[in-house]
Amino acid sequence: MLDRSIGEFSRFIVIALGTTILGFVTNHWWLALCAGLTLYLFWLLYQQKRFDRWLANGRRGPAPTSFGVWGDISDDFYRLQRRHRKEKQKLHSMLRRVQDSTSALREGIVALEDEGNLAWWNPAAGEMLRLQPDDAGQPLINFVRDPRFVEHMYQRMLEQNNKTQQPITLPAPGDESRTLQVEVTRFGQDEALVIVRDVTRLHNLEQMRRDFVANVSHELRTPLTVIAGYLETLQASGQAPRNWERPLGQMNEQTARMTSLVNDLLLLARLETSERGRGRDKISVRSLMEQVAEETRSLSGGRHQVSVHCAEDCTITGDAGELHSAFANLAFNAVKYSPDGGPIELHWRVDAAGGHFSVKDSGIGIDPVHIPRLTERFYRVDAGRSRESGGTGLGLAIVKHVLLRHSANMSVSSVPGRGSTFTLNFPSQKLTLPSSA
């Protein structure tokens, strides 16, 4: 920049000296100097006009050629044009490669802009969601009208941070026999990326598994009831030989355990297949906790100290039976895994995040490595101890499904040898405080 200023100043000096010398020759040096400088000024204005016209026409073609300061500016613009053209070609090439690669994916990808309007999608998404080229610019919820997707989309677009959220499963638009899994990820200001997967085969296999478990469990109830009846009759009649007492007792225990397992499997099958949010009961938390505490004392047989701490009563909207099952499972587990004489505390508190029911025990505790898998079916931290206590390995799986149906979640804190605390966290929209009622 300094070199250009010096060069332009040098040109100015040369023109001034040239016109002055010409003026001395003609004896009109002042008139010659003014004429020369005026011509130079008009030439600069003319070059500026040409450059302004080129800019106003959208910079089509190369910049106008010249010399002097405007020639340097034209050369700079020419270099910028070349650099911009190369970067533009590179971006076009990269975009073409991205589009070609996404077109080869089996998953559908949809790019949204302007708070949910269609910007671009690959062929797989167009086929699964039945999108046409003329649909660009329209809201995606015009084509996927499932209320769950609309709610999911609304929540994702309103989020300030990209926190993890589970994808949703819904029927394909216009084809109820096809099942899609949709996940929305927000990025930028008002943009989002929608990933669509065809999970029809997995959905059908999962449905077959549920139906099989439900049917087998239902069919097992009748023979188990018959076997348990005959065993009780034999034990009560006193007609069985003495050497049969121990085998009959073991058979009775295993029949009761098998019955409990079948009942848990049937409950899980019902939780998985029935519609979410169907329960509209108003359940008093204090009454539910007192009922669960009484059942826990009965199961303990006086071996544990069960206490209830409910600072503020409120009601939960949901299914009374399912919530009782979730609360009771945690309390019964505390009895099974706590030593005799140990305290079991049932707590309820309400804060800005919602309501929190927790069960605190002084049992054997859980190693942190096992905590992420506690809600898996039949997962046991200590298989031998679980069988001795009569557990089926399905209690926490039932709790997880109950919480999913009530938009709640569970957190676990535990120290091996010092006990555990299981906490059920319910959102505030599920609660009704006495003051608001």
From TrEMBL:
TM spans (from-to): 12-45
Top-rank taxon, per record: Bacteria
Reaction it catalyzes: ATP + protein L-histidine = ADP + protein N-phospho-L-histidine
Keywords: ATP-binding, Cell membrane, Kinase, Membrane, Nucleotide-binding, Phosphate transport, Phosphoprotein, Transferase, Transmembrane, Transmembrane helix, Transport, Two-component regulatory system
Main location: membrane
Occurrences of domain Histidine kinase (ranges): 215-430
InterPro entries with a match to the protein in the record: BphY/WalK/GraS-like (IPR050351), HATPase_C_sf (IPR036890), HATPase_dom (IPR003594), His_kinase_dom (IPR005467), HisK_dim/P_dom (IPR003661), HisK_dim/P_sf (IPR036097), PAS (IPR000014), PAS-like_dom_sf (IPR035965)
Cellular location(s): Cell membrane
GO molecular-function terms, A-Z: kinase activity
Enzyme Commission number(s) from the entry: 2.7.13.3
NCBIfam families: phoR_proteo (TIGR02966)
Role according to the record: Member of the two-component regulatory system PhoR/PhoB involved in the phosphate regulon genes expression. PhoR may function as a membrane-associated protein kinase that phosphorylates PhoB in response to environmental signals.
Protein name: Phosphate regulon sensor protein PhoR
Organism classification: Bacteria, Pseudomonadati, Pseudomonadota, Gammaproteobacteria, Cellvibrionales
Protein's gene: phoR
